[in-house]
């Protein structure tokens, strides 16, 4: 969605299950006019949904985009899906921005993470 090239690269933390994920995988069209502004607005808007936990993004050099949204419960995911601005962005995406996309929604039953500890520098 938004460009975070200056932000540190870290995945969304592992949460205590159960929670839900929405995995949105896309290939975009050549016409991307208005996309970045709308994507930034959607990223700001979803943060206001009670139960929204975070979002990860990845883009391959070949053009495959993956966005994973994390939600505490099904109600939070339903609220996001029903948001009028989000619905309008979905319609514009189908009409203009996406060549193809898939959406997978899943209930997470197990979650874990790892972060390398910082080693102290030389004294």
UniProtKB/TrEMBL annotation:
<feature type="domain" description="ABM">
    <location>
        <begin position="19"/>
        <end position="91"/>
    </location>
</feature>
<dbReference type="InterPro" id="IPR052936">
    <property type="entry name" value="Jasmonate_Hydroxylase-like"/>
</dbReference>
<protein>
    <submittedName>
        <fullName>Antibiotic biosynthesis monooxygenase</fullName>
    </submittedName>
</protein>
<dbReference type="Pfam" id="PF03992">
    <property type="entry name" value="ABM"/>
</dbReference>
<dbReference type="InterPro" id="IPR011008">
    <property type="entry name" value="Dimeric_a/b-barrel"/>
</dbReference>
<keyword id="KW-0503">Monooxygenase</keyword>
<dbReference type="InterPro" id="IPR007138">
    <property type="entry name" value="ABM_dom"/>
</dbReference>
<dbReference type="GO" id="GO:0004497">
    <property type="term" value="F:monooxygenase activity"/>
</dbReference>
<keyword id="KW-0560">Oxidoreductase</keyword>
């Amino acid at each position: 969605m938004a460009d975070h090239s200056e932000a540190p690269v870290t995945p969304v933390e592992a949460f205590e299950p159960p929670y839900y994920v929405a995995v949105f995988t896309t290939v975009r069209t050549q016409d991307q006019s208005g996309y970045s502004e709308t994507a930034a607005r959607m990223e700001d808007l979803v943060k206001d949904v009670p139960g929204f936990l975070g979002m990860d993004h990845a883009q391959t050099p070949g053009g495959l985009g993956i966005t994973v949204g994390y939600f505490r419960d099904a109600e939070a995911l339903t609220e996001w899906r029903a948001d009028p601005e989000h619905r309008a962005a979905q319609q514009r995406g189908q009409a203009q921005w996406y060549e193809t996309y898939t959406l997978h929604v899943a209930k997470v039953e197990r979650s874990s993470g790892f972060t390398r500890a910082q080693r102290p520098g030389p004294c």
